[in-house]
Hints:
Layout: H1 11-29, H2 37-51, H3 65-75, H4 79-94, H5 101-114, H6 119-128, H7 132-142, H8 144-168, H9 174-181, H10 191-201, H11 217-227, H12 233-246, H13 251-262, H14 281-291, H15 312-318
Helix pairs in contact: 1-2, 1-3, 1-4, 2-4, 2-14, 3-5, 4-5, 5-6, 7-13, 10-11, 12-13, 12-14
Amino acid sequence: MVINMKATLPLEQRQRLAEPALAGLMTMARLKGDPSAKALAAVAGVRDHLMHVDLDLSSLPSLSPQELAQRIRAVNPDPQWRERVLRGMTLVALFDGAATGAELALLEQTAQAFEVAHSPVESYRKVMGNRQTMVRLDLMRRSFLKDAISATIQQEGAGGVLGIAMVLAGQEDKAMAARYQSLLSYPEGSFGRAYANFISRNQFNFPGELGGPPPPVMHHDCCHVLGGYGTTAAEEGAVIGFQAGFEKLDPFDVLMFVIAEFEVGIGVSPFIPGEFNQLDPERIFAGMAHGSQVTIDLIAELNPWDHFASPLAEVRQLFNVVPRGREAEYPTLVDQ
Length: 336
């Protein structure tokens, strides 16, 4: 099942569902003993940004999978709410340090009691087994990169295919590079100039330049620009959360890309090495709430070239990209 981030419950049902749902997440957080700070931050992020309730997490009971399933069904029998809780428990486990057999067993028992697909459990199993190649292939198949590649090919045709091939072969594409470099001459305040400034500020290369990314990565970078997200590891987690809020993919699969890259050290991206323990769960779930308000899939449905000449503020208003509520953060770079 693909979770629809825009699906909501009536206020009374949401408040009733929040207690068992968050109790399930706290059950996972307590499995190794006292909850870790990062696991608690993940549960609090779900509470504050996705469920919007005021509950003391420490007061919530630990529940068996059967009790949890029964209590969620009593509020709403739609399986998507059980699916959401299973995914949430899996994310808490991933934020709680080294993967363990006890966490895997609880996830398996919960999926069985919930009578839902075990796909999040299988993702956790691959991480626990350090099956890095399988995780990479799985995430490449299910992540936002697939939609970004499809959008590039649909919007640019054979030129998009050739551009991707040339970058992957380590070749320069002067025509493509010149097209992107032209954005530096766009008016200040325009979407295109903001994108070009983002590339320059981070000392990135444009698509088509030697060392530059393939064109589909531009769609992700435009999410940074439109949403107001920086490029530290924590900010990368936040912008992927933002994407998970509006993409027509399973949000869990979208988040797994950045968790594998920056939390559990599996280098999914061919451009950067994997890192450990670099994400901020609160920012990720705040990003999901932010992205859920956007009215278009900015990865799969937006052609940025159709809007680069427009003022950035107008593009944000057009697609309901509301202010994020915090400043973007960037790493300190050495001048080249």
